[in-house]
Each structure stands twice: as C-alpha cells, then as structure tokens.
Amino acid sequence: IETLTDAGVRFVYFSPRNMRRTKELASQMGIDVAWNCAISLRPLDEGQDDPHRMTSTYADWDVNARLPHGVEDVKRHLEEVDNVPLLVSLFTDVTEETTSQMVDVFQEYNETVIAVGLCHLSRNDGTFAAADISIGVDFLNEELNQDYNEEHSIGILQATRKIAVNFLSPEELKFVSSVAARSCAFNIQRGSMGHLPKIIGTARASLE
Hints:
By secondary structure, this protein is of the alpha/beta class. 41% of the residues lie in helices and 14% in strands. The protein has helices at residues 2-6, 19-29, 61-65, 71-80, 96-108, 125-130, 140-151, 170-180, 196-207; strands spanning 13-14, 38-40, 90-92, 114-118, 133-138, 156-158, 162-164, 186-189. The radius of gyration is 19 Å and the shape is globular. The chain starts with a helix and ends with a helix. Residues 54-64 and 147-165 have low confidence and may be disordered.
C-alpha cells in the first residue's frame, strides 16, 4: 500500500464481509482501521442499527462519525455533508452491483479508477467494465500450469478454496481466463503483482 501511495495511487479495498470480519484482514494489509476509516455499502432502513459496526480505540465509527450506509446514503453525504466517503480506504458488505456503483461515484467526482481483481470471478465483471483501467489477476492459470507440469492431469486444484477444474489443460484454462478478463486492459499472473506500482508510477510520470 505504501508503494502504491508513492506511485500516486490511493488504495481502496472492497470487501463482501461485514465490518467486524474485515477489520483484522484490513489491519494486516496496512489499512487504517481507526475512526472514520470504513463505510458499509449495505443500506440500513431508517432507525435500523448495524450489528456489525466497527469500533476503534477512539470511538464507534458509526455513532460518532455518522458515516453513511449504502451507496445512496453515500451520495447524499457527498452532496450535503463532506467528501469523507471519497477518502476512506475500506468499503464492506459490498456486492457486485454496489461496487460498480461506487466506481461510478468516484468517477463523478473526477477520480480515475484502476480496478484490480481476480479475473476468473464473474462478480468482478461489472467493476472491470466500469473502471477507467482494469487489471485482471489470473492465479488459477498459474497454479494449473504448475500442477499440470507435475501431474499431467487435473482433478481438484487447491487455491483460496477447493475449485473443481476437471481435466482442463493449461491452454483451455488460459482461454477461459482471457474471456473472463475481456474488460481488462491487462491480464497478469499473481507473481507479476509486485511490478504494478512501478508501472503505474512510470505512467503517471510520463503524463506530467
């Protein structure tokens, strides 16, 4: 995250998990999890409390910061209160639809959005299509190539979770991944992620 900041990119993480479940992972990633740090994109009915709202050393973010819940509430906050929703680094309880909607919100306020995500997940398609630049990360093809070279046949591939890829060759999975990443300007393997900040930094410098 520090490297991305040095490259002129503000890192924002969208998590489908609730506040409490996301807090620990976000902290390990180096994301600030103190007061005013996160927004849930799960809308609340009027008068409804969020049972998963996140607390910090200083105060309860939901009660004291009065940060919005849901995309429509974010829009109202931006129009009537301040620009804090554009500055937080963590959005939780997200769906494919609400993530794409937040990309639109960032763009409405003249932000350039670079989306980075797993290219084999169909739920990322909308976000990839909405962003100004999209980068698909292909870790399945990388794992499959390694396993195929060792075993010459594929049953179940161990990745983040068990994923069935019965008897797919590396060439077949590469084709599937390329189709899934059709909205991405770049489709890279996991091992190349470390080069992204330098590439982005060089690209920004060339525009100055």
